[in-house]
Design goal:
homodimer; two-stranded antiparallel sheet; alpha+beta
Chain lengths: 313, 313
């Protein structure tokens, strides 16, 4: 039992890990439950796995021909002897440190192109270096990737994101909304991945208790943000044109996750369980060379109305 | 008109660029011709594009419902003010140097799962740093990615690769075959991408004339290696099971190209034309969570017989 000190507080690392783990497992249950309810047909399959250096995870995947084509909700608690590059690029002093990483990652790929894809992740990283005080931080967020947008859904999504941040200060939502805009961006296409939401990383300056409370608020509000959108749009009629556009746009999701996503690269570099990490990839994807939407079309509206950065609340 | 010196020879850089470009454009034509002949139906579309810092390229893409579902054959000659990370990781002294890169990249995704995917690339990089002698190197290779393997095709592929290397020394094929085995490897899956072939990079120790002759030999032998395999397998009967397996395995191709491929990352980092770089991605792809072939099946044979490293000649 060691204590951790960030310059802001001093706490019991064992108790911290137990509390975070307890919350994350419950959150995973709650997320899986609402997804199953919205789908109304399929159930999550569950895989328990062990990490070679310690710890492991609980991967849950649902595939359905009803509402949710593929959903992954992954809890993991891994231990490692060497913090991966993806986490030490901005903290070179932590290279070669033993670490624990606890998190829940969720990616939902609905079947109906009028239901947006959503992504959620929260994580807690604890680094323990011999002879030094433990070091920790929280990260996470959620973002929405529509194919065919609805203004009111985007407003609801961001209002809920703002509500998640409100108890922690008025500056929190604008800061993490902007961070999401910056993070969920495909540089090689000069294109945002979707309409964003929240992204944060390396947060420890509020002290452990408050930052952990913020993680819980983000987790709880993800469900409130996404569930009503799925419920409202899942019966929207669509045809081959909309499906084709969805499959094409899903290519951007793959590109983002494999080229940029910190969690994906962290997982693959730390010898994580590949199938659990890549459960985020869509079930069916197309790449069409140099495709562009017809000007004035519903597809063009995504690029013109929804992807450009906006203040949605 | 400057001269280049590698410690091995001294040549005219302008003449070198002209010669390499002439060969590459002719090679691109020859590759597109044999692909069109094998397809028998579709023709390549052509896009000329310009690179913002200078130079440009000629992208050719064919999509067909006959034999070749998607083929990309890209010539590019780009100039830049700053050599990208992907090329300077092992040459930090070249950071911030002006460069030219000339190359041809080809990826062929056939429709029939019994026809393997193939990839070919050759490139010439020339770096000119103020006050220093120019520096250059060649790189390239080709590799084959079967879904359903045939021993005789793999032997033919590697025999042709060996023939490409033979005039340059007996040690060349084993060395570059091994390099391909090492390079075309998905670390996160602990799995080779296919049966390999040749890979080389940073080659300049033979001097310009010989290394350029080697590029030509690799280019010419790629056609001899691949064309007969397409011709022989394109009419092989297949059904949904084989098609599903092909779409699933294509996911590995996407993972490799976006996570590891030096050419892809070089291109994206150097502000290359994204659609030309990502023409390598398959037209239709699936990801199935934690899928495994039935033991003893034709699909399992890929993992058991073809992917493990072998001496094919």
């Amino acid at each position: 039992m060691t204590t951790m000190k960030t310059g802001f507080d001093k706490i019991d690392t064992t108790a911290a890990v137990v509390s975070v783990k307890h919350y994350l497992l419950d959150l995973q249950n709650r997320i899986c439950r609402f997804i199953e309810l919205e789908d109304g047909k399929a159930a999550f399959l569950e895989d328990k796995w062990e990490h070679k250096e310690g710890g492991g995870g609980l991967t849950r995947v649902l595939t359905s021909d009803n509402v949710i084509e593929k959903a992954g909700a992954n809890f993991s608690h891994v231990r490692g002897q060497q913090l991966p590059h993806a986490a030490t690029a901005r903290r070179p002093e932590l290279a070669d440190s033993a670490f624990q990483a606890l998190g829940v990652s969720v990616v939902i790929h609905p079947k109906n192109p009028y239901v947006p894809t959503s992504h959620f992740n929260v994580r807690f990283i604890l680094v323990e270096k011999e002879g030094q005080a433990p070091f920790w931080w929280f990260g996470g967020g959620f973002d929405l990737t529509p194919y065919y947008g609805f203004i009111e859904d985007c407003v609801h999504w961001h209002q809920t994101a703002k509500a998640a941040c409100a108890p922690f200060g008025d500056e929190v939502y604008p800061k993490f909304k902007k961070w999401a805009d910056h993070y969920f961006f495909l540089k090689h296409r000069n294109e945002p991945r979707g309409i964003g939401g929240l992204f944060y990383d390396d947060v420890n300056e509020w002290g452990f208790e408050t930052t952990f409370a913020f993680m819980r608020s983000v987790g709880d509000h993800y469900i409130k943000a996404y569930q009503p959108i799925v419920a409202k749009r899942k019966t929207h009629p669509y045809g081959k044109q909309q499906r084709d556009f969805q499959l094409y746009r899903r290519g951007r999701y793959v590109e983002f996750n494999l080229l940029y996503d910190r969690g994906t690269l962290f997982g693959l570099q730390s010898g994580g369980r590949t199938e659990s990490i890549l459960m985020s990839l869509p079930p069916l994807v197309t790449w069409n060379y140099d495709w562009h939407p017809q000007p004035g079309s519903e597809e063009a509206a995504l690029y013109e109305t929804f992807l450009p950065y906006r203040d949605w609340v």
